[in-house]
Structures
1.
Amino acid sequence: MISIIFLDCDGILTTGTYLYDDSGKQYKEFSSVDSNGINEALEGGLTVEVISSDPTGGDINEARCNDMGIPYHRAVEQSKDVVASRRLEELGEKWGSVAMMGDDVTDLEVLKQAQVPVTVPNAVEEVKQIVRERDGYVTNRQGGRGAVAEAIRYILSEQY
C-alpha cells in the first residue's frame, strides 16, 4: 500500500520553465490544482515530500513547499535515490510503499525503485520508458498544470 509520495519539483510541480526579471530574480509557476491534490493526499493519510536537484531555485521551491505544508529536500550533493532512501529509513518505510513522480534523468533511480512510478507526457523518453515498463502511470496533464493532482487522485482511486 502506498503511504508516501515523492515528487520532483521542476517539470512536475512547475512547468519546468525558469523566468527571470531584469534584475536576475528567478520565478517559477506552480498550479493551485496541484495544491488541492496534495491536500487530498495529506487528508487521506499519505506523506508527500519533494526531492529536487535544482541548484538555483531551491528557495522558491522550498517556499512553495512550506506554503503547502510538505517537506522539501535538496538533492544537489547527493542523488535523489540517496535522499529518498534516507527519508524512508527515517520514516520507517520501505520502497514498496512509495510512489514517485518525476520527469527527467535525475529521477530515474527513484522511479526504478518506487512501487508506483509516475510521470508526465512531456517527460524525457528514458523516464516514460521506465514508467511504462513498470506498469506505472503517465498523466494526461503536463507538469505545473495539475499533473500532480491527477496522479494523486489516480493513486487514491486505485487504492495502492
2.
Amino acid sequence: MTAGGEAGPGVHEVVVTMSTGRRAAEAFHDAVALALCPNPDHPPPCPIPWSSSLLEDAPVAGGFEERLGVLCGPDDLAGVEELVRRTLATVGVAEYSLHMRHSEDEPELREDYAELVEQAAAEGSPPRRRLR
C-alpha cells in the first residue's frame, strides 16, 4: 500500500498459450514487446517494467507459450489484458488461452519477477506510463 492507502504496483503475469506456428508466436512476442516499450532505444529504466519469454514446450501440442510479467498498479490490470488481446489479434493469432495472475493474490510472483520489482525500487517510483 502507498502512503495514501492505495494499492501500489504489483507484478501481473499473463501466460498466453497459443495454438499457432513459430512465425506467429515470434510475431506476437516481438509485437507485445514493442507495445509495452514503444522506444526500445530509450535510456533505462523502462517506463513500465516488464519481461517476457517465449517457450516452445506449451501445454498445447505444437503450440507456444508466452510468459509476460508487467509491474503495474491494480488500475492497469484491464489494460494489460487488453494490450495482450489486441496484440494477438493484430498478428493473427486466433486460437489462444490466457491465464492471468497478480502478486496481490499470489505473492510468489514478486519473487518470480524480482528483476521488475528491483528495477522499480532502484528508481524509487512506480511505473511512469499507464496502460490504456
3.
Amino acid sequence: MIFSTFAQAGFNSGDLLFQLLAFAFLLTVPPIIVILFFVFKRRNDRLKRVEDKLDRLLADREDKGD
C-alpha cells in the first residue's frame, strides 16, 4: 500500500510551472540589480554635474557683484 503512493509520485504540470517560474525569477533578479546600479550611478553623476555648474554660476555671479 505504501509502495503504491511512491510509484504514483510523478511530476505534475503545476510543479513544472512552479519550477519554471522560480527559475525565471532567479534569472531576472541579478540583471535587475545591475540595471538599478547603473541607473543610480548615472543619476548621481548627472546630479554632480548640475551641482558643479550651479557652483560655477554662483561663483561668476559673486565675481560680477564685487
